[in-house]
Structure formats: C-alpha cells, structure tokens
Amino acid sequence: MTAPFLIGETMTGGYGSANILHDCTIAVEKGQIAVIVGPNGAGKSTAMKAVFGMLKLRGGRVLLDGEDITALTPQARVAKGMAFVPQTQNIFTTMTVQENLEMGAFLRRDDINKTMEQIYHLFPILRDKRYQAAGELSGGQRQQVAVGRALMTQPKVLMLDEPTAGVSPIVMDDLFDRIIEVARTGISILMVEQNARQALTIADKGYVMVQGANRFTDTGAALMADPEVRRSFLGG
Amino acid sequence: MDFLNGLIAFLNFVFVPGLAYGSQLALGALGVTLIYGILRFSNFAHGDTMAFGTMVTILFTWWFQSMGISLGVLPTALLALPIGIAATALFVLATDRVVYRFYRRQKAASTILVIVSLGVMFVTNGIVRLIIGVDDQNFLDGARFVITAGDFKTMTGLSEGLAIKSTQVLTVVTAILVVAFLFWFLQKTRTGKSMRAFSDNEDLALLSGINPDRVVQVTWILAGALAAIAGVLYGLDKSFKPYTYYLLLLPIFASAIVGGLGSPIGAIAGGYVIAFSEVTVTYAWKKVLGYWLPENLAPDSLVQLLSTDYKFAVSFTILIIVLLFLPTGLFKGKSV
Amino acid sequence: MTRNVWLFAGVAVLFILTGQLQSWNLSLSILNMCLLSAIMAMGVNMQWGYAGLFNTGVMGFAALGGLAVVLISAPAVPAGWAVGGPGILFALVVGAAAIGLAIVVYGWLPKGRTRTAAMLAVLIGGFFLYRYLFDPAAMAVESNDPAAAGNIGGLALPSLLAWPIGGVLAALAAWAIGKIALGLRSDYLAIATLGIAEIIVAVMRNEDWLARGVKNQTGLPRPWPVPYEVDLQQTASFLDGAATWGLDPVTTSSILVKLLYAVLFAVVLGLVIWGSERALNSPWGRMMRAIRDNEVSAEAMGKHVTRRHLHVFIIGSAVIGIAGAMMTSMEGQLTPGTYNPLRFTFLIWVMVIVGGSGNNWGSLLGALLIGWLWLIVETVGPGIMGAVASGMADGALKTHLIDSAQHMRLLTLGVILLVVLRFSPRGLIPEK
After folding, report:
1. Which structural domains are found in chain B, ordered by start?
2. Cβ contacts of residue A172 below 8 Å, gap of 6+?
C-alpha cells in the first residue's frame, strides 16, 4: 500500500489542558475522498483542525507527502498546498464573489485568471454572480464561494468542515457532485460530515470517530455495509 | 419675493460653508472609520493626531515663508503638507509600535484600547502644546478669496454677495481627490482589497495568507495622512488651536457613526449630514426667509433654531437619534 | 494590607513635605481638591469597576452638582423670578411634554411612515411652541439687572442641602443618558457621555437666566460649619487661641477654614466608601460582579443586565454630582469656564486607573497621588523648569520652556497612564 498523501498519525491533543483527541489517525490518499463521521462531540472537527495545525498536538505528528509539517502554522501549511474551508464565516460577505476568489489566491503572484476560469467552470452559478456581494447569495451558493476561494491556491489537499451544514438536500447532492469533480482533478479531499450516510456513499475512505478516537476505519462502501456501523451511526 | 437674492444668501451663509466643513469632517471621519474597521477600536486620539499633523505643517510653512518660498495664490501650507503627512504617518506608526501593538497581540477588549487611546491623546496634546503653544495660529497666505462678496455684487448687480474663500475651494477639491484616491486604493489594489478582507473577516483573511502586520501598518499610514490633511484644511479655513481639534472629536465621531462605523462611504455621507445639519440649525434664517417669503409672512425674529454655541448639541442629537433608531448607521457599518 | 498602609503613608509624606517646604495653605487646598476628586473617582470606579461602563462625561455631572448649589443656596432674585420664572418653567414643561408625547406616539403607532411623520410633527411643533413660550421669558429674566443678576436666582437655602440635590440632578441626567446609550457598545457610551458633558457645560455657559452664564455666579454661602476667614479674624476666642500658639491670625484662619472643609469632605468620602463597601459585599454587589465578569451567563440566568447597569450608572453619576456640588460650595462661586474635560473627566480617569480600578481605596490613593502631582506642578513647575533652564541663554526658547511647564504635566499624565496600563494595569491597589 502506498504511503498516504496526507496523514495525521496517532494525534493526541486539545484546545486547552484537556485532551480531546486520543491517538487518532486520519489519512487520505492522493486524489481520493476521505470522510470523518461520528456522533456530536466525537472530535471530528477537532481532528481535522489538528491536521491543519489549529491546535497543539501533545502526541503524534502530521505528514504531507512524506514531509513532517507538525510544527508549521496553518498559514505555512496553506503555502505548502493545504486548503481549509471552515464551517462558518467562510466567505468575505462584503466583497464580491470575484474578490473572494482573488483573496483566496492572495499568496499567489502569478496569473490567477486560468484558475478562476476553472472555478467558474466548476461552479457556473458563480460566474453569473461574480460581481455580486457574496453575502447576498443563498446558503448553497455561499458554500460554493467558500470552496472556490479555497481552491484558488491550487491546493493539493482540500479540507472541508461540514460543508453541507444547513443546506437543503438538493443543494447537498449538488455540492457532493462538485466535490467528486474536484477530487477527479487530483486534489485529495478530507471532509468532516454530519450527514454520514450521504457522505460515506462518495467516500473512498471513512473514519468513524467516537470520543476523540478512531472507532471504525474502512472504505466508504464497507462501512455502509457493516451492520454494526449502520446500527450505531447510520440509523439502521 | 426675491428668489435670487435669497438663493445667494443661502449659498453664501449655509451651502458653501456647509460643503467645506462637511469635507473636513468627512476626511476626519474617514480616518476614524478606517481605524475602527480594521483595528477595531474608537481612536479618541484622532483629533489630537489632526492637531499634530497641522502643527508640523505650520512649522514648515513658517520655515518656507521665512526663506521666501511661496506658492503664489495658493497657500504655502500646501508645500508643507506632504511633510506634515509623512511626519504624522511616522508618528502614528510609532505609537502603534510602542503602545497599541502590545494590546493587539494580547487580543485586548476594544474598551481597553479606547482607554489607551486616551493616554495617547494626552501625550499627543501635550507634545503639540509644548511645541507650538495653545494660542490661535493663522497660517493662511496667498489669495484669500476666489471671489469676494463685493466683486460678486458688482458682477451680478444683486444686493447679496456670494464670497467664496480659496480655502473652501481647496477643501472641496482636496477632499474629492483624496476620496477618489482612497476608493481606488481600496477597490482596485491588492493591498486595499486585503484591508477590506481583513476588516470583513479577520480569521479568514489570515487563513488566506494576508499579513496582518502589513494591513495594520497601511491602515495607520492612511489614517495619519487623512488626519493631517483634514487638520490642515480645517486650520487653513478657520484657524489652528489645539483645543479646537479636541472638540472636533464629537462631530467627527458623530459623522462616522451616523454613516456606519467601518464604512468609508458612510464616513463621507455622515460628514456632510452632520456639517449641513450644524450649519442649518444654527443659522439665522431671517435674511433668507425675508427674501423667499411674501412680505406679510416675513419673520421678525432671527429664526435661529439654536445659537451657534450649541453647534455640538446638533451633532450630538443626530448621533443619539441614529443610535436609537439605526445603530449600524446609514450604510450598515459594524453593528453594536 | 501592609503594602497599602505604606502607600498611603507615602502619599501623606508628600502632603506633609508640601506643607513644610511650600506652605500649609497650599498643602491643604491641594488636599481638599484631592478629596473631592477622590469622591468623583469613586463614582467613576463604581461605573467602570462594577459594570464596565466607560463614562467620559464626568465634567457634565460635576457641573450639574455646581448648578444645584446655585439654584438651592444662591441669594434669591425675586424680580428676576417674577418676570420670567414661571414662563420659563412652563416652556420647559411644554418641551418635556412634547418629547413625552413623541415617545407615546412611538409606542402607540405601528412601525412605518405614519409613525415617523407623526413623531416628527410632534417634535417640530413642540420645539417651536417651546421657543415661542421660552424666548420672551428668558429674555425678560436676563434683562432684569444684568450687571448684578440677570438670572432667576436661588432658593437661599443652606448649602449642605444643595449637595444631595446636586446628586439628584446628576442622577436625572444619568437616567436620561443611560436610557438612551446603555445597552450599546461601550465606545458609543463613551462618545455619548463626552457629548452630553459638553452640552451641559455649554448650557451653563450660555443660558444666563439660569446661573448667569459666563458672568459667573458669586456669593454662594459657605456650608455649615465653615466660617469666613474675615469673621474668624474678628472673633476674640480665635485671636486669643492664635496668640497662645504664636501663630499669625490671617494664615491660621485660612488654614482652619481649609481644615474644616477637609473634615467635611472626609466625612462625605467616608460615607461613600462605607456605603460602597457595604454594597460590594452584599448580594447585590456579588450579582453586579457576576454580571461584569460574564454578562452572557448572567443574562441567561435572567438578570436584566441593562437595568442593573442603569442603576450603577445613576448611582455613580449621583456621587460625581455631589462632589461637584461640594466643589462649587467651597469655591463660593460657579464659573462655567473652569469646567474643562481635561481637569475633570480625564484627570479622574487617570486617578482611577493608577489607583486601581474596581477598588475604592485604590481610587482614594490614586486621587491623592495624581491630584497632588497635577496641582503641585502648577505651582512649582515653572520654578523647576526655571532651574533646569537656568544654564541656557536667555531667549525665546528659554521663555517658551518655562511657560510650557503647564503642558509638561499633560504629557507626564499621559505617559503615566500609558505606563500603568501597560505594566501594572490593575493599578497600585488591585481589586481583591
């Protein structure tokens, strides 16, 4: 088995003095979709934030393409090719869609127009609304702006924190379709999701977390078929 | 009923002064609103920063005048203004480095920063008084009037004269240029957009790789420049006295809040709203109404709503009304 | 505890030194000002320490206290009152009624154009009606003997009565301002109080019918039991006493008067501290601190935060008003021109911060220390500056430096504030 592209190995840590994560391992292969699911308070978002460097690890490490990035700040990890879409407040509401994308590419000094075209191709509705203030868009469209902003750095890994939180089912399906398209371009996707069932259907790898530790780890399809997982987390 | 004369009187005593004063307030409010939007606190030292910038400009104006340099019809102060701007920018950058940066790193509450800005206000005020004293300084030279009342009357044959002071024209022109530049900078340049992003959503801006220190520096430089320009224009138009600049805090903050704290357009709109309200409410309308109303309705009393001593009551009342009914201001700035 | 004792002892030494090296008169007059400032600082401290309220309008509340002294204890001007007093009162009532009616309309009508139009109509109509009634009455009062009076006069009641009334006046203003501005950001409260203070002083400066404006109201009686120096100098018992001790009667009378004031102020100060400490340690005080430390939780527990803040704001302002009244009583005259925000609002804030916010004893210490610094520079500053600059050649720079000794204290005050905020933000006597 090839070494995973991005892996947070046996991570232990938390925001304050108490540990939230206990020996947790999350990994994603190149061009694949890995999904973290689990009950509320399981530490799903915390695990992803740990991979991104937003909290201090007391144990374990994070490797990107073989390189140890445990000591890097989130901004430095962005420069290394990681992109993060927070769950809330993930767009610049007072700026236009186009300006949001420009800000996403702030660290790039080369011509970003090609990348912007790719984003507009991926999310056609954004092209129509490119000069509109992002705060005026609907929930699903705002999520598209948020993802588009993150993709502007041409990252190697895209991390999404509950991208479908608060959107309608149709919009959720649409979003998932686009996430699959993004993965097809070779970008690895790491995603935390509440909608476990739908998320696991598109997942190459699934991590079920309970109380800050891995509980079940397998391919998405295998987890969906596992009777114990279905009973505990997927509602039978 | 003499419409034209009434109109001229109106223009002369209400409209033109209001326009000039509004431009000065707008520039001051722009500085305050920028600092609020990006550094997230109300800078009580802004009035005295304006005084500092004006002081430096005055000193260099005197130096230029003593060397015989002048700008002909334009005030010599314009030559000294760039130096004043540079000095003020350096000064505010220094205060940020020495005073404010510590609290920013600590993520201190904005109230603490306001109290700290009080301390900076004292120090700035003390420095200005120490260097230039507390007296009125008049540093205007060059042509005083673009058109005097007398000339106007001769030209038009009307009994009312419209005088336009050169400082008024200067103020409006400068304000337009500065605002145009500021908007170009904020809307079209990478740094300007990064500042807007930082003001909009600081965490996301940091995630996008925007350098917070750079944004802060540019903000202070812009605010310092705006303060110096506003201060010099006000000083040329009226006169320079350190205490007056402290008093300007109220109308400037009123303008910024009325327009919406954090919104540059709001600051400009607010400046004119406050200025015109102050002038309109404290003007004795007897003369204009005498021209515009038919004979029998012409007023006997001065028809002055509030005496000029209560200028501040006007900005204050408008401020209170806005705070009560529209706390985010006309242009929806940062909310309460 | 011992540290605090040493701090106060240190400050006491400053005052004793001033007495010895300069004059006891100077030391005592500085002490009196410091005591008054301490009371004001306690009022500010209540608002800031208990409720996190940033009140930059100290000047206005103190001025209202002074106004109360004039209205209560100044000699009556029957002619002035007769010719316009009732008229002015009626006009003010009409004005207040118009505002009240506007508020009723606001509550009555549903949101929309009609409501805004109705409110504007009431307010504008009310304003013009008010001016129509007010202007002639005010002019009449002001033209009555303008050189000596020109105002409505006072009630000629004892000074001591004016002090609580000063508190009441300040409390009323605080209620009005608090109703409007509390519950908004603290920055907004700061600006609002800044504005209201300027307006209050502007009213006092310009409305001659009220308290003679900038013509100043003099001849305010001394509060019991403080005598006049000239009276003392003619009392046999006093002269005998002075002779026995070998003291000069003129200076001693002045010192005695100041001492009596100091005692009076200390009594009031003691009452404020006592009341405040009682309140702090009461369930009310604990609740206030709980609110201050975590507003969101307190709100969730059902404590009506804004209403509590309003209470604290009113009480704190009333304390400032009482101090302002005492100050005017001591000066014997109301001089609107002396109310400047630097000497009042900002100086008091430095005292609160340096002394230790959230702590009454801290306010007292801060007031004594900073007040002493501020006032001593006024007297000895030019002298020191002269000594420092004595080596310099005579000329414009030297004179400028000596003249600017006054401005040095502004600079030093600012630096002290910044240094304390940075390195010792809890002040000399931190909150327990």
Report:
1. 3-325 (1.10.3470)
2. A164, A195, A198
